[in-house]
Structure formats: C-alpha cells, structure tokens
Predict the structure of ABC transporter ATP-binding protein.
Amino acid sequence: MTEIGLDESQNQTVAPGTFWRLMGYLRPHKGRLLVAFLLLGLATAADVLQPILVKIFIDQNLIPRHFPETPLVELGAGYLLLVLLTACFNVLQLYLFQVLALDIIQRLRVDLFDRVQTLALSFFDKTPVGVLVSRITNDTQSILDMFMSVLSTFVQNVAVLIGVMVAMFVLDVRLALYCLALFPVIFAVMWLYQKVTSPVFWATRQRVALINAKLNESLQGMGIIQAMRQEPRLRREFGEINEAHRRVRYRNTQLNGLLTRPLMEVIYLLTLMLVLGFFGLRSFSHVVNIGILYAFVSYLSRFFEPINNMMQRLNFFQTAMVSANRVFQILDNPSRRPMSEGDRAPTITRGEVAFEDVSFSYDGEKDVLEHISFTAKPGQTVALVGHTGSGKSSTINLLMRFYPVNRGRITIDGHDLREFQEEELRQKMGLVLQDPFLFVGDISSNIRLGDTQITDQEVKAAAEFVQADGFIQRLPGGYNAPIGERGATLSTGQRQLISFARTMAHNPTILVLDEATASVDTETEDAIQDALRRMRKGRTTIAIAHRLSTIQDADLILVLHHGKVVERGTHQQLLAERGLYHAMYLLQQGGSEDSA
Ligand SMILES: Nc1ncnc2c1ncn2[C@@H]1O[C@H](COP(=O)(O)OP(=O)(O)OP(=O)(O)O)[C@@H](O)[C@H]1O
C-alpha cells in the first residue's frame, strides 16, 4: 500500500543479507567486540571447568573414612575462584555488549532521523506519521534488543555448548558421541517450536499495532470525540481490540509453557536416563568412575540451559530482522527532497519571481497545474485565488521547491529555482502557512527558530512590527512564556502573529503567504491584516487569498480553475470582466452587485 508498508505487522519479509548488513554496524567497534568475546570465552571456560574440579575431588580424594584436608581446601578454593571468575567475566562481557548495542542503536536512530529529514515530501504524502514514528522508535528498539540480549545470548550459549561438548569428549569420547546424536532431536524441537509459536507471536504484534493505532486515533481526535460523544463507541472498540490481544497472549503463554521448558525437560530426562543407563550397564564389566558420572550429569544440565535460552529468543531474533529490514528500506529509499543542481549557487537580491509555462503532477498521471506563467516584479504582490482544489497550494509548493517542477521552469532573479542552494532559498523566502506550526519551547525561541544571530532586540522588533508585542508582554513570562505542543495554549490569532514575527525576524526578500481561513474576532483579524500589509510592503509577495477583500491592492491576481489560470488582472480589471472572479467576489460579499 505504501512504500514501506502500512500494515506493518503483516509485513514480515526480510531481504537477503539483512543480518550481515546489521552486523556491519559492529565493524567500527571491532576492538571492544573482541574484548567482549574474549571475556565471554573466559567466562565460559571458567564455567565449564567447575565440574572437572568436582570430578577430580571425587575420583582422587573421596575415600571412605578419610578426610583429605589439603586437597579439599585447594579444590574448594579453586572451585570458588572459578565461580567468582565466571561471575566477574560475565558481568564485564554483558556490560560491554550492552554498551556496544546502545552505541550502535544511537547511531542507527540518528542516521534514520537524518534520512527521514531529507526524504521528499511526496514520501510523507504516502506514509502515515505513525508508521514512521514506529520505525524510529519500535523497530530500532527491537534491533537494540537483538544486539543486547539475543546476540550475546546466542554467542554465549553457543560458546557454552561448545565448551560442554569439548569437556564431554575429554571425559568420555563414546558417551559424548551418544550425546551428539541428540543434536538432530534438539534442532527438530527448535524448528517445531518456531513453527508453532511464530504465527501466534506475529498475531500478538499485530494486535499491539492495532492497539497503538486505536490509541493514536483516540488521543489525536479527543476534541471531536468528546464533542460528538464518540467515547462509548471508542471505548467499546478499544475493549474489543484489547480482548483480542489478551486471547492471543494467552495462547502465546500456553504454547510457551508447554513447549519450552517441559519439552526440553523431557529430552533432558531421557538423556539423563541414557547416561545413567550407560554407566549402569558398564558397571557390570568395568569399574564405574563416579567423578566422570558426576561431571557428565552436571554437563547435561548445563547443556540444556543454553538451548532453552536460545529457543526463547528465536522470535525476538526474527522480529529484529523484520525491523532491520524496514529500517534499511527507509535508509535506502531513493526519494529525496529537491536539492540544488549545478554549482553556480546564485543569490536572491531583487526578488523577481517568474513562472514560465509550469505544469505539474504529483503522481505523474494527472496534471494539477497546467501551463502556469506569470511574473512578480520586485516588491509586487501576486495573489492566487480559486476554488478549493484549483491548485493554489500546489503553485506555492513548487515555488518553495517542496516538489520538483515537472515541466516548464520557475526563476528567481532570472536564475532557475533548481540552481539555488537550500540555505539561500530558505533564508530569503519567508513562508507563512494557514496553520502556523509552533514548536515546544517559548515565544522567543519560536520567533528565533534556532538562529542565534537574531538578538533579543531583533526578536522584539519583529514582534512589534507585526503588533504582537502587546499580547506577548501580557503573557506570564513575556517572551519567555512557555509554549506547549503545537502552541495549544495560545489562540489562533496569537499563533498567527507569532508566526508572522518569526518570518519578519528572518527578513526575507520574498514572502509566500497562505492566508489564514480560520475565523478570528474582528479586532484580531484587523491586527492580522494590518501586519500582513506591513510585511508585504517592499517585498515580493506571492499570496494565496481565500478572502478576496484582503488582496484588492494586489498588483496581479491570478484566478485558478482546475490547475489553469483562467483569468488574470487587477481587482478592478477582473471585476469588469464579470467572470469567475466577479462571481466569487459577489458570493463573498453576500450576492449584492452594488457592493462590487
Ligand atoms: N500531496 C499531494 N499529493 C497528491 N495530490 C495532491 C497533493 N496535494 C494536492 N493534491 C491534489 O492537487 C490538486 C490541487 O490541490 P491544491 O492543494 O493545490 O489546491 P488548492 O487550490 O490549494 O485548494 P485549497 O484551497 O482547498 O487549499 C487537488 O486535486 C488535490 O487533490
């Protein structure tokens, strides 16, 4: 459905090479990884040696009515030392693996965030925000889990398995070979476990994704939910999804309870019987070595523990691979926002904007703009009017270089828009949107927008210019008044004025306005219109006008209809034409011909 798959829980495919690409992230940390593996090897060796000491004690010193003090103390101390060393090495290796994992994930998350910022806006048109948030948080988290626990568990447990096998072969080759025959059985059980639990595991993840989606919808639309009394419906729907989640989790728990421990326990007990039977039968013809018997029994229990550990993490491994696959899909996505082409890097000085026969389509099929041509001379205002969907915002999207021009060209001061450096465009072109976006912070940080060269005086001057200073001074904290998410604590008009001040503080040469349609009280409306007039003065302005009354003084008005310019001229000229503009104007004036 989307480029990266909307129904993420269903998308379980993993591209070949994903695992090794992920492992590639370990490369810069080779040194630390080597130390971690060394510690892991030492911990495993110290662990595997413990039963050997007991065996030596049993075989050489356990004689009835004899208390071998010195060997007992020595072997006891040796055993204790091995236990301590195992614990110390394990703590260190675990710590190293975890720090390594955190470093890698931090890198991956930042890389991903960087990449997302350079993606073309067309990508965001097709990808729901929730999916992207999930990529950057959940998916990187499951990769982190893999590096933190799955990888170290697998490596450690495989090391223990190898250590135990070596020790078994050293003790008794024939018996070790019998135990080796167990491997196919164990792998079969692991395969079975994976086969049975995998669908349930994915079903659980899918339910969690549904819960998140429902929560997202409910929380974002809380205003409308309360206003339309949708709470009972949403509560019921949320309850149903949760119930489905509970059921599938039950099933997961049942399967885990049945398959992991008990099944392995049965195999373990069968093997134990095999070993004891072997020694039993041997006792008829040979002297049984109790030390070896003890060591074997002890190794058997150490042998099954790692297998249990690995089995429990198989699904997490699979999840991490799917997550890594999705993360790499974003990193590899070819879509990029339009950047400067060529190395001429022109500058914007006068601010002359020209559209030369521009046509554009978002999807490559349907043109939403056709043959648009106009020129805005330095300091002039060109207004775009037209019904909804006529192409006004699309025109601005192209001018701001949010989307690349398909056909024709746009020039600024005679240079093709494609040639400008991003920095130059953003600095010299001020965009004011209908719905001003305020960042979490305070008033002054929202006006300054991270530009440390803008002084406090300039911030205040910009606010005064758009007449926002008055209400800002009245806020508790003034310019330092905190702003919550999206500026929810301010009124629409106040948010507008702050966004005007932000634009003015950066003193753009060209102003691009998407006039607000939100209704504010007359006083605020007057303040906004007055601010806009001051802002436009001396600046080339391209403005989308919803209320025709606000752009009567524009040098040129373009009337758009289905992506084409159907009328052009000044307010008076267009009224005289008695075409679409005239009809729209009459409609807005309440239908009276006289008012025109
Ligand atoms: N991001 C997009 N992806 C695909 N099609 C789009 C996109 N944005 C707009 N369109 C389509 O382009 C056409 C022109 O839309 P545009 O937003 O430019 O109109 P508008 O005149 O600004 O309308 P309004 O006054 O309602 O904002 C519409 O048919 C719309 O469906």
Observations:
- The longest helix spans residues 69-118.
